[in-house]
Design brief:
- Helices cover 39% and strands 16% of the residues.
- By secondary structure, it is of the alpha/beta class.
- Helix 3 links the parallel strand 2 and strand 3.
């Protein structure tokens, strides 16, 4: 449903860029969407992404009981080269630890995706107020 909504929005943009940002679980969903529906988004910001859900669940709860979760990792190879992916993480994020974002970006580069990059916010945590200023600047730069 989210992908259908994004496709409808993109169809009405008259050639302008569709920039989409997801935070935490929303970043995980967006990471899956951009691979499952190639070309639907021009720029995706995955902020505090639990991109490898099983590993993230184990780090948080000691086990993974979300067995039907979609993993953005599984769709990296299908992300088109014209979709810019910015993975943003707070250096001090204790919830979606930086290792998960770094792993996603590393896997993307191994898959030949030079359009995927990592931005670490030095004083950032998982809390949105510590991330918002940097994310706002990234979006403003991309809109130009």
């Amino acid at each position: 449903m989210v992908a259908d909504a994004l496709a409808a929005i993109k169809a009405n943009l008259n050639g302008r860029k569709l920039i989409v940002m997801g935070h935490s679980g929303g970043a995980g969903q967006l990471g899956t969407i951009i691979g499952r529906y190639p070309g639907i988004v021009d720029t995706a910001l995955l902020v505090s992404c639990p991109c490898n859900v099983p590993k993230w669940r184990i780090s948080r709860r000691g086990k993974n009981n979300w067995l039907q979760s979609q993993l953005p990792h599984n769709y990296i190879k299908k992300i088109p080269g014209n979709t810019k992916v910015l993975v943003v993480i707070g250096q001090h994020d204790a919830n979606t630890k930086p290792i998960f974002s770094r792993e996603y970006v590393k896997n993307a580069h191994v898959a030949g995706k030079g359009n995927v990059s990592l931005i670490t916010i030095p004083n950032g945590t998982h809390k949105w107020p510590t991330l918002q200023g940097t994310v706002d600047k990234i979006i403003a730069q991309d809109v130009r």
